[in-house]
Write a structure and sequence with these properties.
The protein is of the alpha+beta class. It has two domains: 4-154 and 263-331, Aminopeptidase; 156-261, Alpha-Beta Plaits. The protein is 25% helix and 29% strand. It has helices at 4-12, 22-33, 91-106, 125-130, 181-187, 237-250, 312-331, and strands at residues 38-45, 48-54, 60-65, 76-78, 81-83, 112-117, 139-142, 150-154, 156-165, 198-199, 203-204, 206-214, 224-233, 254-261, 264-265, 274-277, 291-294, 309-311. A six-stranded mixed β-sheet has the order 1-2-6-3-7-17. A four-stranded antiparallel β-sheet has the order 12-13-9-14. Strands 4-5-18 form a three-stranded antiparallel β-sheet. Helix 3 crosses helix 7. The two termini are 27 Å apart.
């Protein structure tokens, strides 16, 4: 049977930042073809695509993403932990799904599909494309680090850019210009005063002011400035957009909305620990792939950090959990 730790380490050794997943796609596709899976690659953009593998299909799809955030951290074993970029988000999960699918195939179960997408970390263009495929599964088990609990639901996300405009001038005569940076830095902290929605299960809407930029040189009064913000949604997005627009315009700024993923509730199965999660997954964009569940080894608290890791015992146990979940769902 597949050694999930060794497989995960192989995946971790391949750099696959969002928009540059080609090498990881090639590795996974070849691995599956060599084991008798019917594999197709759906091009999402030149040089990168989603990997879809099946035998007969019509049952349960195991799915996660192959892209990671930068910078690259190579795999290393230390104690009972496997470290590296993607260890828990989500290459360790991909390895566990591949191992579970092989185990199920060896037991004669051919109603399992595997779907590995690109682009989840920035815009989810892979999931959006995958939802155009002729999916036939009844259930979708998506993989994100849930600490080996079934997620009852997850927050959505809304990205937007807020911009302020000024008038450039020589910095020796600032009265001849108007700074774009100063009103932006006054405006941004006030977003925490906006009365965004909350939910009894998912909690509060959360705010992250992720980037800020502006100006050209220290001796030029800045003529433009902008900041990219991400909200984690717990409600419908339309009222939230209105609140953001009102906030930005009251501060003399313009706002441009980016990608949106709605909050969602998930299917759960008796006999498993259940808890909501605060992050976003690709599930809302994969509606054609069946009733959704969310499960994975590892903790989101270490994802996107220099010390990202997954516990080896938890990783190994997740292989059996994925296989058990598939069997329970197929028997329901």
């Amino acid at each position: 049977m597949t050694d999930v730790v060794a497989l995960a380490a192989e995946l971790l050794s391949i750099q696959s930042f969002t928009r540059d997943e080609g090498a990881a796609i090639d590795f996974v596709a070849r691995w599956l073809v060599n084991r008798g899976w019917n594999v197709s690659i759906q091009e999402v953009s030149p040089g990168r695509g989603n990997v879809w593998a099946s035998h007969r299909g019509g049952g349960v799809t195991l799915s996660t993403h192959l892209d990671t955030v930068p910078p690259f951290h190579p795999p290393r074993l230390s104690g009972n932990r496997l470290y590296g970029r993607g260890a828990c988000d989500a290459k360790g999960i991909a390895a566990a799904m591949m191992a579970a699918a092989e185990q199920l195939a060896a037991d004669g179960e051919d109603r399992v599909d595997l779907l590995f997408v690109v682009g989840e970390e920035k815009g989810s263009d892979g999931a959006r494309a995958a939802n155009n495929l002729a999916a036939s599964s009844r259930y979708l088990i998506n993989g994100e680090p849930t600490e080996s609990r079934l997620a009852s639901g997850c927050k959505g996300s809304l990205r937007f850019v807020v911009r302020t405009r000024g008038r450039e001038a020589h910095s020796a005569y600032p009265e001849l210009g108007a700074s774009a940076i100063e009103p932006l830095i006054r405006l941004l902290p006030t977003i925490h005063d906006v009365d965004f929605p909350s939910d009894p299960v998912l909690g509060a809407t959360t705010i992250n002011i992720g980037t800020i930029s502006g100006g050209t040189e220290a001796n030029i009064v800045p003529g433009s400035a902008e900041s990219e913000v991400m909200l984690r949604l717990v409600s419908d997005v339309a009222p939230v957009k209105r609140l953001v627009s009102d906030w930005a315009h009251a501060g003399g700024a313009d706002v441009e909305f980016g990608s949106t993923i709605p909050a969602q509730r998930f299917h759960v199965v008796d006999g498993y620990d259940v808890a909501p999660v605060s992050y976003t997954s690709d599930i809302p964009l994969l509606g054609r792939w069946g009733t959704p569940l969310l499960f994975g080894p590892g903790s989101i608290h270490v994802a996107h950090t220099p010390d990202e890791y997954v516990d080896i015992d938890e990783l190994r146990a997740s292989v059996s959990t994925y296989a058990s979940l598939v069997k329970q769902l197929l028997s329901s």
